[in-house]
Amino acid sequence: MFDFLQKNGASMELAELIVELSRACAGISNAIVHTSTGKAGTQNVYGEDQLALDVQAENILENHLKSCPFVAAIGSEELDDLIHVRDDGKYTVVHDPLDGSSLVNVNMAVGTIVGIYEGSDLIGRTAREQVAALYVVYGPRTTLVLTVGDGVHEFLLLDDVWKYEGELSLGGDKAYFAPGNLRATKERDDYFALICEFMKEQYTLRYSGGMVPDINHILKKGSGVFLYPGMPSAPDGKLRLLFECGPMAMIMEQAGGSASNGEIDILDIKVKDLTQITPILIGSKKEVSRAASALS
Ligand code: P6P
After folding, report:
1. pLDDT digit string (tens) for 198-215?
2. What span, in angstroms and rounded, lies between the C-alpha atoms of 50 and 57?
3. Which terminus, N or C, of the chain has the lesser number of Cβ atoms within 10 Å?
4. Are residues 210 and 99 in contact, defined by beta-carbon separation less than 8 angstroms?
5. Residue 55 CB partners (closer than 8 Å, separation 6+)
6. CB under 8 Å to 38, separation ≥6 — which residues?
7. Where are the alpha helices (DSSP H) in 201-235?
8. CATH: 1.10.3860.10, 1.10.1840.10, 3.40.190.80, 3.20.20.70. Which one for 176-294?
């Protein structure tokens, strides 16, 4: 993976950092099988009960990142604030260590999401400044999808080694939709109408409740749209800008797709605070544009 990353334009430091992250995610893949799916007895900054797996995944990532000499700071969906690692570090790493962790006890796919910024301050910046982004899908197979700004590339974990599988890009035209936050159709006639249109036009439904496998489906099939709109009772939805939407948006744009909050690109939303959430429409450009118009 290191040689591949350098050939794709990553600096030695960035390549080393991503290799360290890939080692951490191989460890999380193993932890998912062996760690209890029960509650940890703690809550995250959003007031959500943490699972033992959330804490375990966070600890694995933190330990690997703290061992990397190029990490200045770590931000996590599971933490209240940035962890400052070293003053001479080059990168800040933001992550959702185990997105959808509650799906593990029903044996459905979950994922890790990571975004990498140069420097150590994030407030006032946008996700377009990320220098790299990756996600890992822990499913029947464990795969890692990354971009360092030169296309989107997939690796498969085989006996603890990440094997290059190839490039991913959108360009397909099969109609898939992944409608998150369906409860919003109760408050939003426009969302209800859009879902009805998709069904009447015989779009294929592919929604698991895990953002990572649901968006990975779009990238692997080459088309489709994932929706998580807001609603009057929760105007900004619930997905996190820094830890979930920003990294996924960079990957999707690099694959030839787009990601919007319904008005502007996710990558152009200014970061006001670490816990910021945003509605997200992400996938094929045509489908995102259609959904943004329907939900404007
Ligand atoms: P809902 C998982 O908890 C998550 O954060 C994302 O992975 C997923 O897309 C979303 O929530 C699912 O939310 O409201 O459909 O259960």
Report:
1. 999 999 999 999 999 999
2. 11
3. C
4. yes
5. 40, 42, 78
6. 51, 52
7. 211-221
8. 3.40.190.80
CA distance linking residue 10 with residue 2, whole number of Å: 9
pTM of the model as a whole: 0.97
Q: What is the spatial distance between Cα 295 and Cα 188, in angstroms, rounded to a whole number? A: 9
Report the residue among 99, 187, 208 best suited for mutation to probe ligand 1: largest number of ligand atoms under 8 A from its CB. Answer: 99
Closest C-alpha to ligand 1, atom 2: 100
CA dist., res. 81 & res. 56, Å (int)? 18
For the stretch 156-184, pLDDT in tens is 999 999 999 999 999 988 999 999 999 99
Closest Cα to atom 5, ligand 1: which residue?
A: 100
d(CA 54, CA 58): 6
Is residue 99 within 6 Å of ligand 1 at its C-beta?
Answer: yes
Euclidean distance between CA atoms 174 and 203, whole angstroms: 8
Q: Is the CB of 210 under 6 A from ligand 1?
A: yes
Is the pLDDT assigned to residue 148 strictly greater than 90? yes
